[in-house]
Design a protein that fits this description.
It is built from 11 helices and 11 strands. The protein is α+β, with helices and mostly antiparallel strands.
């Protein structure tokens, strides 16, 4: 897999974002290097037709994102809800209160809120947790499956961002929805001067032997180099090297991989050492590691070095 070098996010931010002390308090950063007056919080990060990507602005929007997650994870996929979760009808955990929630909204399909006002429908979401926020609280969610702290400690000058809980409503699982989500993430990376993105990605199923081809393909073709390698916790470690390289039908394995993981690979992501079976969600998880400097330049150029491709005019 070819990985092309890219300017560091710090260099990009210095180039496109006003670099005055305390600027974050006086301006809201916008894609395309624009700024917005103070008070205009969580601006639009991009738009394609009726679809818009931005961060959640209210607790109600976060609840809607949790309802979407519940529908996809528990009703459509094979996650097993405990009685409280089933009664609530939302996928909720303690990390929701400290994370930013990236949303894709459809302005053509609206829903009435409790006051009878029409609001755009939330059709996609990603949960974002910055290192500085994680360190003030309980750490990264990923640490429950992988030894992520060892990677953070090995790169003390870099800023990490955890990606998680991604899902899109079935009718919206199209190229433009995914593009908007990644456009929003790229804008967020620039906004917060992120150096490395990490997170768990899931393959449906809890029997590693049935997933041997996919796991072995990832092990042989995308395993992180030593400086970026993270191992699954010993108590949960599942060996991904389940087939010799020559026995892996790479075309079939790639076809079977979830679209999200294939998207990460196209971006230039590395895969951690070992997988983890998550029985609650009915998945086998692998760790994604994406140093910004190693992202495929084709995709960075596609979204724009200043995240301006789909910037809302």
């Amino acid at each position: 897999m070819t990985r092309n070098a890219l300017l560091s996010p710090r260099s990009l931010v210095r180039k496109f974002v006003p670099a005055a002390a305390g600027a974050a308090l006086r301006h809201a950063w916008l894609p395309g290097g624009k700024t917005a007056p103070a008070g205009r919080h969580t601006p639009s990060l991009g738009r394609i037709g009726p679809l818009e990507v931005r961060l959640a602005r209210t607790a109600k929007e976060i609840r809607k994102a949790q309802e979407l997650r519940y529908h996809v994870f528990y009703e459509e996929m094979s996650a097993v809800a405990d009685p409280d979760t089933a009664t609530l009808g939302r996928d909720v955990d303690a990390y929701d209160t400290i994370c930013d929630h990236l949303l894709v909204l459809d302005h053509e399909t609206t829903e009435r809120n409790a006051l009878g006002r029409r609001k755009p429908r939330i059709v996609g979401t990603y949960r974002l947790l910055r290192q500085d926020v994680a360190e003030r609280h309980a750490g990264f969610y990923t640490a429950s499956e992988f030894d992520i702290q060892s990677l953070v400690d090995a790169h003390p000058r870099l800023q990490f961002l955890e990606l998680g809980r991604s899902c899109v409503l079935k009718p919206y699982r199209t190229k433009r929805t995914v593009e908007l989500l990644w456009h929003g993430i790229w804008a967020y990376v620039l906004m917060h001067r992120i150096d490395v993105m990490v997170g768990c990605a899931s393959i449906e199923g809890t029997d590693p032997d049935r997933l041997a081809s996919q796991l072995a393909f990832l092990h042989h073709n995308a395993r992180a180099p030593e400086e970026w390698r993270v191992r699954a916790l010993e108590s949960r470690y599942v060996d991904m090297n389940r087939l010799p390289r020559g026995d892996v039908n790479e075309r079939q394995a790639l076809r079977e991989l979830p679209p999200l993981i294939k998207g990460y690979l196209r971006l230039g992501a590395y895969i951690g050492d070992g997988a983890v079976v998550d029985h609650q969600f009915g998945t086998t998880d692998v760790l994604i590691v994406m140093p910004v400097q190693s992202l495929n330049s084709r995709y960075v150029n596609h979204y724009g070095a200043d995240a301006g491709r789909y910037a809302h005019q």
